[in-house]
C-alpha cells in the first residue's frame, strides 16, 4: 500500500483490487462490530508545511498529525489559512496556478507533496467536501457513480451496489431511493450536501476533508450532517474546517486553532475549549475576537 | 398651496434630469424598433409582391431548379427556380459549421482549460483580429490561395462550393470559439474542483463534466456561426463561382441565396419581376435568420432549465 502512490501498477487493476479489498474489510468489520482503531495511529501528517499564494505566505510552518477514526476540527478566524491548509492535504492547491507548497505531507509515510506522486490516486484516498454543495448537473445516481466509473468499475450491478451503499452511508438513501435518476439539482441544500458526501464516499477514501460542510445549511440539515459525521468516523478519518465553535466542540475529538497562517494550538477538543494553554486560543474560543 | 420641500416632486432640477434620461433611452429603443419594423415590413411587402402582384407560383419559385430570369415568354420563361441557391446556402452553411464547430470548441477548451494563461493571452487577440477582418479580405485571400489550390489538387475550376465552405469555415471560427469560451468559463469552478477532488484527471473532468455542462453553449456557438455563414455574401460570391445550376458536387461552381442577390441587384429595375424575385430571396434570408435567433433562444432556455 505504501508504494501504491509513487509506483502504482496500471490503474484499473489497482482500483479493482482496492474495491475487493475494501469489501473484504467491510465484511470483516461487520463481523467484528467495528473496533475502534488503535490509539495513536496517524492517518495523515504534515511537517513544516508552508503554502504561498504568489507573495502571500498563507500557511506558516505547520506540523500536525491527524489520527485514524477521529474527527479533527480546524478552527480560526476568517483568512487564518485553515481552508488553505485543508486543501493542501489532497493537493487541491495544485489547481491554483500561483500556489506554491513546501514541506512534507505524509500519508502512510509517503510524502504525497512530491511532484512525482499520482495526485489522482491521492485524491481518491483523500476525499473532499466543500462549503457550498456542488453536485454535478447529472442524476443522483450518476453523481455517485461518476468517480467509480472512471476509476474502473464498469458493471452495472457493481455500480448499483456502490451507489446504494454510498447513499446509505451518507444517510440519504431512504430519501432518494425512488428518484435516483432525477436531477441532483432538484434536491434541497442539505440533501445536496449529503449527496456530495456520498459521492466522495463512493471512491472509498480513507480520509475525508470537509470545508465548513454545514455553514450554508439550516439547523435541521446541520444536525443531520453532524450525526452523519459521527457515524462516518467509525470508518474514516475526518478533518473538518468550521467557523462554528459549538459544532467543533460537539463533534470533534481534537481541535487545531489557526491564526494568521500559523498553528497556535493543537490538543484534545476538551482541552482547547476548557483549558487552552495559549491566550489567543482562549480569546478566540470564548468569542473575544474573530 | 404651500410648497413643502419634500413635495417639490418633479419640478426640481433632478426631476427634470430624470425625465430627460428616461426620454433619451426611450428614444433609442424607439429608433431600433422602428428600424427593425421597417425592414420587416419592406422586405415582406416587396418579397411577397412576386407572388401576389407578379403571380409567380410559390412552389415553382421554391422548388424550381431553373433560374432563367431573361427567358422570353415565347420561349416558356422567365423561370425563377431558386432551389439550387437554397441548396447552395444550406450546403456551405452546414459544412462550414461542421469544420468550424469542432475546431472552435477545441480551441476554446485549450484556451480555458489547457493553457488558460498564455493560451488565452495569445488566442484572444488572434480571435479579435479574425473577427475584425473585412469579408472582402477573406474573399480575396480565398480567391488567391484556396481557389488555385483546389484547382491544382482537387480538380475543376477551383471556384465552387468547397472554396466557399473553406472561406466561411475560417470566417465563422472566431464566432464559434469566443462563444464556446464564454460557455466554458461559465461552468462554476467548484464543479470542476468537485471532479478533481474525486480523483478525476483533467481530461476526465473536461470530457465528463465540462463538455456536458457547456453543451448548450456549444450549440449556441455553432448556431451563431451558421447564422453568420448563411448570411455572408461577399466573400462567398468571390470564390463560389456563381453557377446557376443545381450543384452535383462540392467542386462545382454554385450560388447561394446571398450571392444571387448581390450578383443581380445591380442589373434589375426596381419594381420589375426580376427585382421582386430578389426581394423574395431576401425574405427567405430574413426568415432563416429569424429561425436561427429563435433556435438560439430556445437552446439557451433549455440550457438554463437543465442546469437548474
What does this entry look like structurally?
The complex is a heterodimer of chains A (290) and B (308). Chain A is of the alpha/beta class. Chain A is 39% helix and 23% strand. Chain A has one domain (2-285): P-loop containing nucleotide triphosphate hydrolases (Rossmann fold), CATH 3.40.50.300. Chain A has a six-stranded mixed sheet with strand order 6-7-8-3-9-10, with helices on both faces. Chain B folds into two domains: 1-53; 79-306, MetI-like fold, CATH 1.10.3720.10. Chain B has a two-stranded antiparallel sheet. In chain B, helix 5 packs parallel to helix 9 and helix 8 runs antiparallel to helix 11. The longest helix of chain B has 40 residues, at 13-52. The A-B interface holds A 90, 92, 95, 97, 120-124, 127-128, 130, 132, 134-138, 146-147, 150-151, 185, 196, 199-200, 203 and B 116-117, 188, 190-201, 204, 208-209, 212-213, 306-308.
Q: Helix and strand layout, with pairings?
A:
The complex is a heterodimer of chains A (290) and B (308).
Chain A: H1 11-32, E1 42-53, E2 56-67, E3 71-75, H2 82-89, E4 99-107, E5 110-111, H3 119-125, E6 126-129, H4 140-150, H5 156-169, H6 173-176, H7 189-201, E7 207-211, H8 219-232, E8 237-241, H9 245-251, E9 254-259, E10 262-268, H10 269-274, H11 279-285
Helix pairs in contact in A: 4-5, 4-7, 5-7, 7-8
Chain B: H1 13-52, H2 58-63, E1 67-68, E2 79-80, H3 83-114, H4 118-132, H5 135-153, H6 161-185, H7 189-197, H8 202-231, H9 234-240, H10 257-264, H11 273-306
Antiparallel strand pairs in B: 1-2
Helix pairs in contact in B: 1-11, 3-4, 3-6, 3-8, 4-6, 5-6, 5-9, 6-8, 6-9, 7-8, 8-11, 10-11
